[in-house]
Amino acid sequence: MIRIESEQRVDVLRQVALLQEREIRTLYQRNEYLTTELVRLQGGDASALQLELEQLRELLARRERALFAESSEKRPQPPSEEAPVEKPAPRGHGPQAQPRLPEIERLHELPESQRECPQCGGQLVPLGDQSEDCEEITVVERHFVLVKQRCRKYRCRCNASVVTAPGPRKLIPGGRYSPEFAVEVAISKYADHLPLERQAGVMEREGLKIGSQTLWDQIDALAGHLKPTYEALCARVLASPRIGADETYWRLMGGEESSRWWVWCLTGDEGVVYRLCSSRSAKAASALLGGYRGIVIADGYGVYESLARDGPSFTLAHCWAHVRRKFVEIEPNYPAACSQILDRIGELYAIERLAPTSKPETAPLRAQLRRERSRPIVEDIRRWALSQGALPRSGLGRAIRYMLGLWSGLTRFLDDPRIPLDTNAVERALRGVVVGRKNHYGSRSRRGTEVAALFYTLCESAKLTGVEPRRYLLAATHAAIDTPGTATLPQSLLD
Q1: Which pTM value belongs to this model?
Q2: What is the chain's percent helix, strand, coil content, to nearest 5?
């Protein structure tokens, strides 16, 4: 018997896919026949039967696209009626400027044996300081070294005291590995998404024999020093006047607890915060957002609505990108209707690009544009939604119901220029977590989830602020070792 989950032969998998597609078609025809008989026996009319069959065809088409189509929210653009303009042939992108790379100058001399003039046999001498120059980018291989740290001892001639010179910073008292080594391991795992086992293999090829458990011990100790920094970043984000919120699943592969955990993500103007929780419940969300007093931009997950409704807490705004996504998914089944609303949502985004929320100085202009141009478009969208006669269970009916169910949160941006149109910022912040989850499959313990949340917070906050993550972790680690309890924010490293 063929096991699909472990089969690697392409020809066998292709045959299985063809057989499954044939079986799906057979089941669909059987379902269509039974639906027809059911409507006939219930005394239904032909129009009701046709609507039911159209809904079945739509469901089948959506399943096929989910399995075989490319995953993209880009819509096909209609061909332009204007005469195409011939573009010049590309001539290459040219060399890119490298302002961050250190420069090394190497002078190439002509060998003594070749310094004879080919015409007269005289001696060739340098032509002043002239040279023919070119650039070359190369790589210097990373290497590990074993440093013998010798702390010299001093004594007084009276033999009353002996003083030892201070040694280097230690991540772990009496430990063998430097803070710089631990930062390298943390960056490789949480910024570059390399599992510890893979890192250990790479290090062995480079001459260092080490186990993944030792690597984990280093980043665990590093996280202990950086905990005050993590807590300070959490407080900084929760002090923002607006934050984006979203969540995605995470795996916990060890212990007796549930293996499906959740990463809760909050983004502010100056940082990103991650918390890993064992559930996606209102209790978990309340522990994260219970004391927040500001604006939360989120998708349609009901937990945020319940938190905003149950007490005098935050103001909830909803995301237009999620609404747009619903209509993009069903556009092949309802091209005319979806094209109308997607074009109107596109006009909202075109207006936002004139005064983006990422630039606070454009807030007055943004408020004016939303009042004069965005509000009429939003009203047109609502009139369009109420005028549609879609079946409640159809794809179009569900998309419209989703939009109208969030209408108060979707229109809140019209009265407050601080509110963005979508949650794209927090979804971008979750990309690193999702890539890491695919590479090292989550965490092995509860402590592993805490360490992951800490390092993802520090690395992504540094990138959001414009600080190189390795440089930020090193600076925060050195400050914490020199003065325990010190918190270092990435803004302090900006030039």
Answers
A1: 0.81
A2: 50, 10, 40
